[in-house]
Amino acid sequence: MASKYVVLAIYGAILVVHGLINSLPIQWLAWFGHLGAFWNAAGIFVLVILIPAVAKERASLEFIFTHFNSDNGMGIHSKAYILAMGLLMSQYSLIGYDASAHMTEETKNADRSGPAGLVTAVALSSAFGWIFLVALTSLMTEDIPSLLDPGNDAGGYAVAQALHGAFRRRYGSGAGALLCLGVVAVTTFLCGSACVTSNSRMGYAFSRDGAMPFSRFWYRVNKQEVPFNVVWLSVAVAFVMALTSLGSQVAFQAMLSVATVGAYIAYGLPILFRVTTARRSFVPGPFHLGKYGLLVGWVAVAWVALVTVLFSLPVAYPVAEDNFNYTPVFVGGVLLLSVGAWVLHARFWFQGPITNVDV
């Protein structure tokens, strides 16, 4: 298995490629977006058919939908608690709802295509993701603790080990599992590039409104109308975060917590204000939910509140220093710093989004 420094070097190289892709003209970036959408759809279609066809042994639907792995080595035996923890897996992947908003300034008919793209992406991701997960979990016929054992052929990666076992039993070799994982790896690579795109446009919007240090440098665009400076800022920040967490699991957990829980809180707060203080003053755009808007809004707020609590629960028992869930500590710290910065400084000069900027 590669050392952590080799992994960091590979990660750095991939980030550089992502930066180069995002430095291309918008037309090329759109092409990569289309490629990502096609690869995701085609990859899931192929794997959903291939995986059950290859597997000689498949788990029953009863096992897939009703079995709880209480022999998990984490000291968690309550089925309700395991279900609650399992819900969080979808929250790690169903994220980035704001990406459509970040790209609207480079989108035709943005007032309609932006929100329509968001709704479509969530609906398709939920449907096809569910089908893909059912196909993957149908392979979980082996002793589950053995799939998670760091000493197995896949180094403890359950999905990779399950794929390896299925191909080995069918063909006597686990090489086919590498092809399946290759499809997933390319999907992950394209998603990583899309993340840099989203982050750079978000950084550009913040700097355009004067809400970032050295804003005048970050909101500049090149001749191809690409925010080149903030693209490479996004790449640099991503690498520094990985470097910081290299020797500390706690630091990694902190960044993951803030990135996930913080994003959901950021999604939930505008919706909360929309259904409360701005209930009467809110002016809907051409694409809206009509009379169902308030109902959907309250459901969204309730769900965000629920997953925020779930993300803060202990992930192992008995709770000790090495398995303590620092999520509420770090997320609370970020919220405290953010609110403090607003109260003590930003509220005296920040006047809201700037609509006309000479870039």
UniProtKB/TrEMBL annotation:
Keyword Transmembrane: yes
Coiled coil: none
Cellular localization per UniProt: Membrane
Any Pfam family hit: AA_permease_2
Membrane-spanning residues: 6-25, 37-55, 75-95, 116-140, 175-196, 226-244, 250-273, 294-317, 329-350
Entry keyword set: Membrane, Transmembrane, Transmembrane helix, Transport
Entry-linked InterPro entries: AA/rel_permease1
An example Gene Ontology CC term for this record: membrane
Annotated membrane topology: Multi-pass membrane protein
The keyword Transport appears for this protein: yes
GO molecular function, one term: L-glutamate transmembrane transporter activity
Main location: membrane
Name of the protein this chain belongs to: Amino-acid permease BAT1
Protein species of origin: Panicum miliaceum (Proso millet)
